[in-house]
Write a structure and sequence with these properties.
Layout lengths: L1 E6 L4 H11 L5 E4 L11 H12 L5 E6 L3 H7 L7 E3 L3 H11 L3 E5 L5 H13 L6 H12 L2
Parallel strand pairs: 1-2, 1-3, 3-5, 4-5
Length: about 140
């Protein structure tokens, strides 16, 4: 799987931990920044990840900011992106099964490293359930037109 990842300064520390975790798995990962603790604007980092996923250059995206909320709002402005800020393992599972989540957003100031790793694992391994959920996603796609 090809994964795009990025964070703002509030998510940098957790992003580094997730990158270390991803390095133990057999995925191709591209880091779009940020790379320092200097204050930056999360939309600047959400955009290349969301665009890359929307264009099919990446299978999934992972974004990290302080809460995961701001960066998810920014990512969702890109047509075809289904991003959500996820705080627990059940939501990680259900957002994949029901919503075919393609960009996972995490809160670097909210989540422990271990919980974040569990959420990432579930996000990467859980398939979309399809079925009744497909019609709902088609309605969302129609809203984007």
């Amino acid at each position: 799987m090809k994964i795009a990842i990025a964070s703002d300064h509030g998510g940098l520390s957790l992003k580094k931990e997730i990158l270390n975790y991803l390095s133990t798995l057999s995925h191709t990962v591209q880091d779009f920044g940020c790379f320092t603790d200097d204050s930056v604007d999360y939309p600047d980092y959400a955009k290349p990840v969301a665009m890359g996923v929307a264009k099919g250059e990446f299978d999934r995206g992972i974004l990290v900011c302080g809460t995961g909320v701001g960066i998810s709002i920014a990512a969702n402005k890109v047509k075809g992106i289904r991003a959500a800020s996820v705080f627990d393992t059940e939501t990680a599972k259900l957002t994949r099964e029901h919503n075919n989540l393609n960009v996972l957003c995490l809160g670097g100031r909210i989540l422990s490293v271990e919980l974040a790793k569990e959420i990432v694992k579930i996000f990467l391994e859980t398939p979309f359930a399809g079925g009744r959920h497909e019609g709902r996603l088609k309605k969302i796609a129609e809203m984007e037109k």
